[in-house]
Design brief:
The protein has helices at about 40-45, 70-80, 95-100, 100-110, 120-130, 145-165, 165-170, 180-190, 240-250, 255-265, 275, 310-335, 345-350, 355-365, 370-375, 385-395; strands at about 5-10, 20-25, 30-35, 55-65, 90-95, 110-115, 210-215, 220-225, 230-235, 270-275, 295, 340-345, 375-380. By secondary structure, it is an alpha/beta fold. The strands form 3 sheets. It has a 6-stranded mixed β-sheet, sandwiched between helices. A 5-stranded mixed β-sheet has the order 9-8-7-12-13, with helices on both faces. Strands 10-11 form a two-stranded antiparallel ribbon. A hairpin with a 3-residue loop joins β7 (about 210-215) and β8 (about 220-225). The longest helix has 26 residues, at about 310-335. The protein is globular. The two termini are about 35 Å apart.
Length: about 400
C-alpha cells in the first residue's frame, strides 16, 4: 500500500518550501509532503501557460502502520533533492499514532515533531481545498454499478408506494400499522437529491454541514459557516471493525484483500432479503416489500457453519452491515441537527468504491422511510483520506492571512 497521488494548490497561499506531515491513524499512515520539483516542459510535467510557477504540488502517499519504515524511506528519497531545509523547524503530525510513534519519527528521520489536533486538521484542510481547488477535482463521481444499485432500489420503492396507493389496498383498508404514509414516501423519493457527483457548489452554500470521517472509526463533525466546529457523534464500528471481523470470517490479512473479496461477493447468499421473506402476492404490506431490501444481516447464517458460505459473500455481507450502520448514524444525526449537506472522507470510502456504492444505495433505501433522509445532499471528498495529513501540513506552510 503506497498509492501516490498529488494535488496542486495556489502558490500565493502557502510557503513554497520543502515540508511534510504525517497523519497516523488506527490502521493507516498518511503522508503529505512538498518537495523540490524539477523544472520540466509542458509535455513532461503536464504544466502549461506558466501553471508550474503558480501552483505548489502536495504529494500524498498511503501506508499501513506496520509499514512505517517504508514510508520513512520513501520520504527521505523523495526529499533527497531538497537539501536539509525540510528537517528544520518543527514537523507537525496528527492522529493517534502521532503520539505513539513520536520517538520513532524523531529518531528515524531526524526531526522534531509536534502532534496537533486531528479534528482541526480535517476541518482546516477541507475548508482550504473547497475554497482553492476546482470543484471537479474535489468530489468523487459515482460508479456505474453504484448508480445502477441506486436506480434499482428507487424503482422498487416507487413500485412499493404505488401498490400501497392502489385501489386494492385502499378498498380493503389494509392496516399499515405506523408505516410512513405512501404519499410522503413518494414525495421523498421524487425530491431526493443523490449528489455524490462533481456538480459545483459555492463555498458559502456548503455550510452548515457534516464532515464525516470514515476510517478506522467514524466521526461526525458539524462545521458552521464561520469555520467553528464540534464533534456530534460517531461509532467504533467502521473500517477497523470491518478488517478485524473480516479477517476472522475470511482469513484475509489486509484491507485490500478484504475489499477485493467484498467487491466480488454476493451478500444475498448470506443476508435475508425482501425476496426471501415475501411471496410477492397477497394484500398486506409485507407481501410487497421491495425484493432488494435488506431485512436481516447474516440471516441465512442461522444454524449454519461458516464452511457453508463463500468468503467473498461473507466479506460483502459484512461490508453491508458497516454501511447500514454508518448511514443510520449519519441520517439520524442530520435530522437532529437540522443538517442537509454531508461530505464523507476517509480511506474506507476513498479506497473502496464498493463501500461508496453501498452507502449510496442505503441512502436511497432509507429515503423510502424517512422524508428527512431524502433531503440530504451527500458527496465523497476526493483525496479525503489525506485531509488529516494535509491539514497538519497546512498548519506549518499556510500563510497566516489565509489560515481561516
Amino acid at each position: 500500500m503506497a498509492d501516490l497521488e498529488f494535488i496542486e494548490i495556489p502558490k500565493a497561499l502557502v510557503q513554497d518550501r520543502p515540508a511534510f506531515s504525517f497523519d497516523i491513524g488506527g490502521t493507516c499512515a498518511k503522508l503529505a509532503y512538498i518537495k523540490a520539483e524539477p523544472t520540466c516542459s509542458a509535455e513532461e510535467g503536464g504544466h502549461s501557460n506558466g501553471k508550474a510557477n503558480q501552483t505548489v504540488k502536495i504529494h500524498l502517499s498511503l501506508y499501513t502502520r506496520d509499514d512505517l519504515d517504508r514510508a520513512f524511506d520513501h520520504l527521505q528519497k523523495s526529499m533527497s533533492e531538497s537539501g536539509d531545509e525540510w528537517r528544520k523547524g518543527v514537523v507537525t503530525t496528527t492522529g493517534i499514532g502521532g503520539h505513539q510513534f513520536k520517538t520513532k519519527l524523531s529518531e528515524e528521520i531526524g526531526v522534531q515533531t509536534k502532534n496537533v489536533n486531528e479534528m482541526s486538521c480535517f476541518v482546516q484542510a477541507f475548508r482550504f481545498l473547497c475554497q482553492n481547488i476546482p470543484h471537479e477535482q474535489l468530489w468523487m463521481a459515482p460508479s456505474e454499478q453504484g448508480t445502477e444499485l441506486m436506480n434499482r432500489m428507487r424503482q422498487q420503492l416507487h413500485d412499493f408506494v404505488e401498490t400501497l396507493n392502489s385501489e386494492d389496498f385502499i378498498e380493503k383498508e389494509v392496516d399499515l400499522g405506523g408505516f410512513p404514509d405512501a404519499e410522503g414516501i413518494s414525495g421523498a423519493l421524487d425530491t431526493m437529491q443523490t449528489t455524490n457527483d462533481k456538480t459545483e457548489v459555492t463555498f458559502e452554500d456548503m455550510f452548515p454541514c457534516f464532515l464525516v470521517m470514515v476510517g478506522s472509526g467514524q466521526g461526525i463533525l458539524l462545521i458552521e459557516k464561520d469555520g467553528s466546529f464540534k464533534i456530534v457523534d460517531g461509532t467504533n464500528k467502521c473500517g477497523r471493525t470491518f478488517l478485524g471481523l473480516g479477517s476472522l470470517l475470511t482469513g484475509a490479512k489486509s484491507f485490500e484483500e478484504l475489499i477485493d473479496l467484498a467487491n466480488k461477493g454476493d451478500s444475498t447468499a448470506v443476508d435475508e432479503m425482501g425476496s426471501d421473506l415475501t411471496t410477492g402476492q397477497g394484500n398486506d404490506m409485507y407481501s410487497v416489500i421491495p425484493q432488494d431490501m435488506l431485512m436481516f444481516s447474516f440471516g441465512k447464517a442461522c444454524k449454519q457453519n461458516i464452511e457453508s458460505f463463500n468468503k467473498k459473500d461473507l466479506a460483502r455481507a459484512l461490508l453491508n452491515i458497516i454501511a447500514m450502520d454508518f448511514v443510520q448514524v449519519v441520517a439520524l444525526n442530520a435530522e437532529v441537527h437540522n443538517v442537509q449537506k454531508v461530505y464523507m472522507c476517509g480511506n474506507f470510502v476513498n479506497k473502496a468504491e464498493v463501500m461508496r456504492d453501498e452507502i449510496s444505495k442505503i441512502f436511497v433505501q432509507r429515503s423510502g422511510f424517512s422524508v428527512w433522509c431524502s433531503k440530504i445532499e451527500y458527496k465523497f471528498v476526493q483525496h479525503g483520506g489525506f485531509l488529516g495529513a494535509i491539514g497538519a501540513l497546512l498548519q506549518t506552510i499556510q500563510k497566516s492571512d489565509e489560515s481561516k
